[in-house]
């Protein structure tokens, strides 16, 4: 293992030197030169203790040092990084440790501020949630810097994606397949009515067309107005995200399985024709998830459909300072915090069933169907920046047999 910077290499080389000296002493090589072996032992043990303390204190810094790996490979295709990696280096040779270090697996630092307890009052709740949001924002800013993404995009490309609800002075950028339909229904209730009833929050009371028209009324088209809103520190800006690979699966199921829209059906047939293992076998002619993953891996990210486009291209979180970074996995608390910040009616809340509770069996079954297993790790590699930006852990289902 190699670390960047002298603060890593000097203790590392000293420890190797001392270890070599101890091994020589242990096997009685050149004993005349090692009269002070006890001093070496004491020095070595002292150094080890200091290194343990140092690594514990700076473990976050160590984790982020390894993000250089993604910076090298972020533009590679089929495992080749702009000629820096030999063309014979395939993704199956990618060590699991290298994938692991991209996201500091298991950190989820923003969730370490505790869960809501039965005796938690509103002030305590708001303080806890503020710590959560501050942690998410700091993590995002740090990851953007380490990945070199902060200045990659211009907010000019966001026209048509930013909404401004003047009643609450709330600015949103919506990411598809993060549960935003329910969130739009909630916004519709609190924005269009001064005294909404509980029925107004129930998903389904407004048709899809009504919600689209509602959002269109608050979507910012004017470039100057959008730039002004996004740069204004007094505006409350919000984004909702979800575990990237679960979002990808949700997009596939929504567009290719549960719906039968002509445009997506044609694309599904094209994917199946290109990536199907045995096109002569009689089937429905539609793409499987395994085939869709192959298509996703082979397609340049700049041409992705909006429903499975990366967060960094949709809402450009490295170019916009979002105050609220909500996650579908914690959406009830995150939404409750937002509603209190903007002064929404006390009855307002996200509809039940909005959040997910862990990885479902459906997700496990679908990703188990992605074969060979190395394809899952290639998929993860292509989405690794999304995991790193929003502090998601490497999914356990990548290793399913």
Provide an overview of this structure.
With 401 residues, the chain is mainly α. Helix content is 49%, strand content 4%. The chain is built from 16 helices and four strands. The protein has helices at residues 6-26, 37-57, 59-65, 68-73, 96-100, 122-147, 180-192, 208-218, 223-231, 244-257, 262-275, 289-298, 311-314, 331-342, 361-368, 373-389; strands at 162-165, 170-173, 236-241, 324-327. The longest helix is centred in the middle third of the chain and has 26 residues, at 122-147. The two termini are 29 Å apart.
User: What are the secondary-structure elements, in order, as H or E?
Assistant: HHHHHHEEHHHEHHHHEHHH
Mean pLDDT: 76
Tell me the overall shape. globular
- Which strand order does the major sheet show? 1-2-3-4
Please identify the structural class as seen in this structure: mainly alpha
Spatial separation of the terminal alpha carbons: 29 Å
Sheet of most strands = 4 strands, mixed
- The helix fraction, in percent, is 40-55%
* Individual helix count: 16
How large is the radius of gyration?
25 Å
Report the portion of residues in β strands. under 5%
Topology, number of strands: 4
Question: Can I get a quick summary?
Answer:
With 401 residues, the protein is mainly alpha-helical.
Question: Features of this protein?
Answer:
single chain; 401 residues; mainly alpha; four-stranded mixed β-sheet; 16 helices; 4 strands; 4% strand; disordered N terminus
Topology (SSEs and partners):
Layout: H1 6-26, H2 37-57, H3 59-65, H4 68-73, H5 96-100, H6 122-147, E1 162-165, E2 170-173, H7 180-192, H8 208-218, H9 223-231, E3 236-241, H10 244-257, H11 262-275, H12 289-298, H13 311-314, E4 324-327, H14 331-342, H15 361-368, H16 373-389
Parallel strand pairs: 2-3, 3-4
Antiparallel strand pairs: 1-2
């Amino acid at each position: 293992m190699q670390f960047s910077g002298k603060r890593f290499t000097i203790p590392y080389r000293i420890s190797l030197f001392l270890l070599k000296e101890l091994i020589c002493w242990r096997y009685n090589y050149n004993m005349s030169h090692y009269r002070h072996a006890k001093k070496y032992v004491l020095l070595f043990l002292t150094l080890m203790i200091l290194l343990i303390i140092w690594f514990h204190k700076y473990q976050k810094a160590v984790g982020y040092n390894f993000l250089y790996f993604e910076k090298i490979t972020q533009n590679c295709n089929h495992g080749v990084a702009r000629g820096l990696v030999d063309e014979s280096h395939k993704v199956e040779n990618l060590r699991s440790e290298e994938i692991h270090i991209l996201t500091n697996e298991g950190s989820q630092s923003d969730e370490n501020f505790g869960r809501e307890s039965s005796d938690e009052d509103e002030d305590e709740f708001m303080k806890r949630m503020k710590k959560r949001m501050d942690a998410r924002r700091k993590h995002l800013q740090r990851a953007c810097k380490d990945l070199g993404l902060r200045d990659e995009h211009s907010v000019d490309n966001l026209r048509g994606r930013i909404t401004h609800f003047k009643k609450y002075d709330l600015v949103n950028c919506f990411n598809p397949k993060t549960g935003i339909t329910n969130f739009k229904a909630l916004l519709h209730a609190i924005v269009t009515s001064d005294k909404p009833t509980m029925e107004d929050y129930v998903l389904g009371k407004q048709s899809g067309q009504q919600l689209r028209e509602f959002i269109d009324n608050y979507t910012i088209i004017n470039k100057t107005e959008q730039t002004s809103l996004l740069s204004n520190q007094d505006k409350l800006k919000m984004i909702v995200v979800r575990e990237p690979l679960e979002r990808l699966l949700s997009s596939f199921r929504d567009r290719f399985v549960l719906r039968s829209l002509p445009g997506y059906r044609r694309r599904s047939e094209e994917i199946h024709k290109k990536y199907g293992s045995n096109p002569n076998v009689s089937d429905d002619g539609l793409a499987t998830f395994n085939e869709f993953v192959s298509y996703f891996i082979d397609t340049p990210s700049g041409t992705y459909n909006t429903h499975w486009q990366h967060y960094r291209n949709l809402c450009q979180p490295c170019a916009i300072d979002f105050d609220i970074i909500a996650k579908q996995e914690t959406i009830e608390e995150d939404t409750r915090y937002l509603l209190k910040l903007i002064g929404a009616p006390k009855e307002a809340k996200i509809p039940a069933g909005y959040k997910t509770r862990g990885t479902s069996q459906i997700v496990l079954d679908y990703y188990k169907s992605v074969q060979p297993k190395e394809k899952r790790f290639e998929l993860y590699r292509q989405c690794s920046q999304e995991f790193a930006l929003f502090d998601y852990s490497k999914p356990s289902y990548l290793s399913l047999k």
